[in-house]
Structure formats: C-alpha cells, structure tokens
Amino acid sequence: MAEATGETVLQLRDVARSYVSGDETLHVLRDISFSLQAGEIVALVAPSGTGKSTLLHIAGLLDRPDGGSVEITGRESGRLADNDRAAIRCSEIGFVYQFHHLLGEFTARENVMLPQMIAKQSRRAARARADYLLDLFGLGHRLDHLPGKLSGGEQQRVAIARALANEPSLLLADEPTGNLDVKTAAVVFDELLRVVRGTGLGALIATHNDDLASRMDRVVTLRDGMLVEF
User: Fold this and answer.
1) Does the keyword Cell inner membrane belong to this entry (predicted)?
2) Could you tell me how far CA 65 lies from the centroid of its own chain?
C-alpha cells in the first residue's frame, strides 16, 4: 500500500448532480463527500448507470455539480470559469478512459508530446518526457509506431503515459483496462499501479474488476447516489 503524504489532491464536499428526463428528475449524485490524498490509489466499483462516470467527470472538471464544491489541490475549482477549469485540467489532472482515444496520425511519442506542447513545454522537453514515460511502460522500442501498429495493450499504455505527461497531481481513470482481454488487462494494470505509485500522485480508478480493486488502497462504491466506503 502506498503511503499518503497528507496533501489532499481531490476534495468533494456535498456534491450533488441530477438530470431532468421528461417529467422526471433523476438524482444521480446525492451529497457526495470524498477526499483523496497524494500517494493514494482508490478504486471506484459501481455498476453501470449508477453515476460513476458522472462522478469522475465532476472530479475532473468536465462537468459541473448542481451543488457542493470540488477542490483540486486545495483550490475550489467547480465554480471557476471554463478557461480556468481547462487550465487546471491541463496542469493538474490526467485522464485515462476505457478506449485509448489516441490520435491515429501521430506516433506513440507524438501522442504523449501533444498535451505537453499544449501546456507550452518546449518540443525538446516534451520529447524527453514522452520517451521517459514510454520507456517506463516498456515501449522504448515502439516510440515511432502509429497507434494502428500497436497492440491493444500497447495502445492503452501509451494512453496512460499521455495522461501522466504533464505530471498531474490527480489521475482519474474510467475502466482503464475494460477493453482488454483478461491477461493483457492484468499486465497493463500492474504497470499502471507501478508507475502511479512511483509518481506519488493521487488516483481514483473506476473498475468492474473486483480483483483489480482489491489491489488498491481503498474501495468505494455508489449506492442510491451516495458514496459508500468498503
């Protein structure tokens, strides 16, 4: 188990989110409060349709809550202007999805360089960082390969490296191995845990896999719109 450093990278306080469908209001999240520290990896295990993607989108400043607050590294961020939220996403938050969403016309190295270039890193520094991260994931020999020439596991490794490119404080992952076969998923998840623990960031990882969840530091679930810790 990783040692939490005491720095809170994500703090949700009384977060609520609902959607209106016809005459019905669906309360997806009800007064969610949650804290994640640097050096801590937490599993979010919940069935589809219970609001876990909504929770991740709010935590990642991709959606706004109807009520409550979202703090990223101690800063209230949920009510900021869109440009300020985008800046925090770029510098402080890394995202990994079930599908890799790599840009097919760019090499593995270039896919990892792109978020750094957007963050105004020099091309030289971005290239060095991309090479370093891809080497951590055992892809040092695949730097110049296009995504279409990589296996599913390799593509997802590149996507994880891309999420870590700007040295975020917070990693959010939504079923990061859900599109892989069981054997490949286990290998990629091993590498994800190893690298994330090595960086000391905080990670909230949604998964349906109870075995993978059991290897994280804590497990939480959503039940009737409430967050419950095992």
Assistant:
1) yes
2) 18
Model pLDDT, residue 152: 85
- Give pairs for 82-88: CB < 8 Å, separation 24+: 85/61, 86/61, 88/61
Closest CA to 58 of 207, 172, 227, 159: 172
Locate all alpha helices (DSSP H) within 60-209, ordered by sequence. Answer: 82-92, 108-118, 123-136, 152-163, 182-199
What mean pLDDT do residues 45-66 have?
Answer: 88
Closest CA to 27 of 16, 13, 35, 14: 16
What six digits make up the tokens of 226? 């409430």
Whether 121 shows a pLDDT value over 60: the answer reads yes
Kindly state which CATH superfamily the domain 8-229 is placed in.
P-loop containing nucleotide triphosphate hydrolases (3.40.50.300)
The sign of the torsion formed by the CA atoms of 213, 45, 97, 74 equals negative
SS3 content of the chain, % helix, strand, coil (to 5): 35, 30, 35
- The SS3 assignment for 110 reads helix
Q: Kindly state the helix (H) or strand (E) to which residue 210 belongs, with its residue range.
A: helix 210-214
User: Residue 202 and residue 171: Cα distance in Å, rounded?
Assistant: 6
Of 69, 38, 1, the C-alpha closest to 171 is: 38
